[in-house]
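pasting for ref
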Amino acid sequence: MLSALNRTNHGVGSGASDFGGYDSYVKEKLQSDVLWRCLYYGYIGVDWRDTSVECDDDWYFVTKTVVHCLVNEKSPKETYTIPSRIASSDVEAGLTLKDVQRRGQKVLDEAEKLYNKCLNSNEKYEVAKVSINKSGDTYTEGNYEVQNFKISSNKALGSYDVTLSKFPSGTTYEKNGSTLKVKIPRANITGDIEGLVYLTNVQVETCGAFYAEAYNDDFQDYIIAADPYEIASARTTFNLTTAKSIIKVEKTDEDTKEPIAGVTFQLKEMDGTVVQNATTNDKRNCHIF
């Protein structure tokens, strides 16, 4: 595939409108690891502000330059030099020769760095993979039983959606990067729990790329990419055996000795932590689990 790029054919710059009628179709997943690394470490996977270049267009040009150099097996500094004159378009844009040379040096330095990284790294494209597992034991936090989960992915993790199923009513969750915290109201735990945790629309930054062939033989074939994130999903089960005792509480009037409805009781740990609140019902009693 490295030999498929024909530099004598027309191609597009930073926009497909550079040549009228240019069109292509995606033929297959990019098979070259070295070209994938160029995109992953280059324009698709790294923001230009994390490099020494001065704008997004320069970083795009760095990446495109390195693709051509990898195809021709010659480094950027073996192939290109800093310009010694300025183009009329640069003058119209308000640039001086000093500006062009300064930016050109940064582009060439970054291209050389990216070129060597592509050749010397062993990183490869991988299909997005994600998993979720319990992290530690269940613990009490205020009026909740809490279980933490750890989300793991083979590339950088982005956003994700959470769905809980078969948990007691009122169960909620908190997301913090790769940590998911499921909170179950203690007052609503009436028996063993067999819950399901679903992760959907999980974004994993794999930076997938594709090889696209031009319909017109006069134009270059291309490496294209869209969203650097691929979507994955995962699920896990959560089992909690309660095996709790039941305390029956009844409040009576001191004078009449009759039971009273609407009285709230609290069950606390020795350190004062509230385990559960319960209110006497219309039968004048309540149960604390």
